[in-house]
Structures are given as C-alpha cells and as structure tokens.
Design goal:
The structure is a single chain. Helix content is 62%, strand content 11%. The chain is an alpha+beta fold. The protein has a 4-stranded antiparallel beta sheet, with helices on one face. It starts with a helix and ends in an 11-residue tail after the last strand. The mean pLDDT is 83.
Length: 276
C-alpha cells in the first residue's frame, strides 16, 4: 500500500513537471492557451500585464475548487489533485520561460502533447490536475449533467478571448493545442467521462462492501455461472467516472485478483447516478 501511494505521488509530480514544461517552453512563449483553469490563469496573467505569473494564478484559482472537492468528492482524490496543482505551480515558477522554436505550429502541437502526457499519466493513476476535473467529479456525483458542455463552454471562452487579445490566428492555434492534447489523453486514458464495469466474481459480498465504502456507487448484481467450471458466481454491474477507474482496479485486486472485469464505454445514463 505504501509503495503504491509513493508511486502515485511520483507519477503526479512527473505529470505536473510535464505540464510546467509544456507551458513555459512552448505555450506561454508563443501566446497559445491551454485548456481549463490553466488557460484561464494565462488569460488573467495577460490581462494583468504579467504582473502576476500564470503559475501563481493557477494555484489561486484552484483553492476554492480544492475546498469544494474536499467536501463533495473525497479527501484522497482532492489531496492528490492539490499536490498536482501545487507542484505544477511551483515548477512553473522555477522553470524559466524559454523559446525553443519560433514556429507557432510546433509550439502548439508539442505544448499540447507534452501537457496531455502529464494529464493522462495523472488520470491513469487515479488523481487529477485539479480545476475542471474536480468540478466534473462534483457534477457527476450530484446528477448526470452533460459535463462536456461545461468543458466546451470554458474552452470556448478561452479561445475567443485569445482571439480578441492576440488575433484570431493565435486562437486557431489554441484549437490545435486543444485537439492534440485531447487525442493524446484519449490514447493514454479512457476518453469517456463515464464507463461501465462488469465484474464477474465469487466474492461479490466483499466486493460490494468495498465499492460502497470507497466509491459510493450503486451496484446491480446478476447471477452467473462459469461455462467450463459450472461454478456459481455473480456479475456486478457498476457505472463509474473515469476518475474512479484506478480506485476500482485497486479494489478488485485487493478483494478478488481472479475476478474477470470488462470495462465498456457509457454513452449516457438515465436515473440517479449515485445510489440504487
């Protein structure tokens, strides 16, 4: 357990370092904006004439979100998210802003890809980079709201403001960055906000208690029988967010390493998401 947590912290720190490199070496020098709260921090820094750095503003913006996540999402998830935000803000302050290329397209693509590798690694290990990730978690636990709409709205504001401040060519390259980062995150982690896990196990009672204790998710069970062994089992069906996938994998390995699990995309759901 201690080794896993240590690895998780290392992954979060590496992800934050990659995010800072992406910003200070590619996106900020080229006046290309990132997505989410990082892009908002860039905008505010530009409006303030650079008197307050993007790293510091990113940290300040995430303080109220962290408090919200601590109350609504869970202490462990929020703690790792805060570590990620703090580390990225720190790295952005100590790493100098430097031009590696004058080609704006190269900056847009490499900035988006490097940032996405960091985000994808962080998500895969059950943490997040804060900001909109925590807001998405809160919304998904309250009600099945169309989270993509909020991401789209925020990023649209960033793109339009970038166009107004630096010209529409910069805004178009910002879209290139968003596209590149989205594709890479999809390749590293699941692209779907919600997924359905079908777990076939002989230890359904223990599994149910553990999932209810850590994830607070409704579970549907269906009797199952092995075709070759004729052993009686249960298939547990549970819908989770992509942020909870790492924790679910840990639960399954702890309770029943022999369990068979199938993860499929969930296009949409009807009904209350939190409990049966």
């Amino acid at each position: 357990m201690v080794l896993i947590e240590a690895k998780k912290i290392i992954i979060v720190l590496i992800g934050a370092l990659l995010g800072a490199i992406s910003m200070n070496f590619f996106l900020i020098p080229a006046n290309i904006y990132a997505s989410g709260f990082t892009g908002v921090a860039q905008l505010l820094s530009s409006v303030l004439g650079g008197n307050i750095s993007t790293g510091i503003l990113l940290f300040i913006l995430n303080i109220p979100v962290t408090i919200l996540g601590w109350k609504k999402v869970g202490k462990t998830f929020t703690l790792y998210s805060f570590i990620s935000v703090f580390a990225m803000s720190f790295f952005m302050e100590v790493i100098p802003i430097k031009h590696f290329s004058q080609d704006i397209l190269l900056n847009a693509v490499f900035g988006g890809v490097i940032a996405a590798v960091g985000v994808g690694m962080t998500l895969k290990w059950g943490a997040s980079t804060g900001g909109m990730d925590i807001i998405a978690m809160v919304l998904s636990r309250m009600k099945d709201k169309p989270i993509g709409t909020y991401f789209f709205t925020l990023n649209s504001i960033i793109i339009i403001t970038a166009g107004a401040l630096y010209g529409w060519e910069k805004a178009l390259y910002t879209i290139v960055t968003l596209y590149a980062s989205t594709r890479v995150i999809d390749a590293i982690h699941t692209r779907h906000v919600k997924v359905t896990a079908m777990i076939i196990t002989k230890k359904s009672e223990e599994m149910k208690k553990m999932i209810h204790g850590r994830l607070v998710r409704g579970i549907t069970t269906v009797p199952a029988k092995g075709a070759f062994s004729n052993e009686s089992k249960e298939m547990m069906i549970v819908v989770i967010t992509r942020y909870e996938l790492f924790e679910l994998e840990r639960i399954i390995k702890e309770v029943d390493p022999q369990a068979f699990t199938n993860i499929v995309q969930t296009v949409g759901i009807f009904g209350f998401f939190r409990k049966d």
